[in-house]
């Protein structure tokens, strides 16, 4: 089996990938993650996932390279990125309050030896409770999810913000859809478990 490389600096993605009990290394790719003019959210995450994998291909021959990218999309089509600070996080959660947000996770698996690249987008929808400004502030002060698209951590206290969720793979909400990744790895001949 070729060596496995996660093209990400995200501790959340590393923790998820560890669930598969496969040896892997990780490295942050250096790419421009800007959205192109008029680029649809689904196209953005697929492109960025693939670019992250390709960015490390030359320096990692004979590897299976995993790239992933995620955005949150409000019902009106507005894309929510990482808030990076309290005021933006408050604004994002106010916008999500009482409505639905779809998380689109782009996933790419590149075989740097053959050049074959599998690319998909895995959606997952979160239906938020009606949230007061006080609830939002308490949550943000406790968990400080400023490095998370949509301003919450579903694997932590963020779950208390939800009324319900829907989707095929709950791990996609955290940023690495393991069910789809296993399919891709099996396509490359990786034995799991």
Can you offer a commentary on this structure?
Keywords: Cytoplasm, Hydrolase, Nucleotide metabolism. It catalyses: N(7)-methyl-GTP + H2O = N(7)-methyl-GMP + diphosphate + H(+). Pfam families: Maf. The protein is of the alpha/beta class and 193 residues long. It has one domain (1-186): Maf protein (Alpha-Beta Complex), CATH 3.90.950.10. It contains six helices and seven strands. The protein has helices at residues 11-18, 41-55, 86-96, 133-143, 171-174, 178-187; strands spanning 3-6, 25-26, 63-74, 79-80, 100-111, 117-128, 162-167. Strands 1, 2, 3, 4, 5, 6 and 7 form a seven-stranded mixed beta sheet that branches. Strand 3 and strand 4 (79-80) form a beta hairpin. Helix 3 (86-96) packs across helix 4 (133-143). It is elongated. The protein starts with a strand and ends in a 6-residue tail after the last helix. The model has no long low-confidence stretch (mean pLDDT 96).
Short description:
The active site is at residue 69. The chain has 6 helices and 7 strands. The protein has 193 residues and is α/β, with parallel strands linked by helices.
Helix-strand pattern? EHEHEEHEEHEHH
Number of helices in the DSSP assignment: 6
Largest sheet report: 7 strands, mixed
- Whole-Å distance between the termini? 14 Å
Domains, number: 1
By helix and strand content, what is the structural category?
A: alpha/beta
Mean pLDDT: 96
The low-confidence runs, each spanning 5 or more residues with pLDDT under 50, are none
| CATH third-level topology | Maf protein
What is the oligomeric state here? single chain
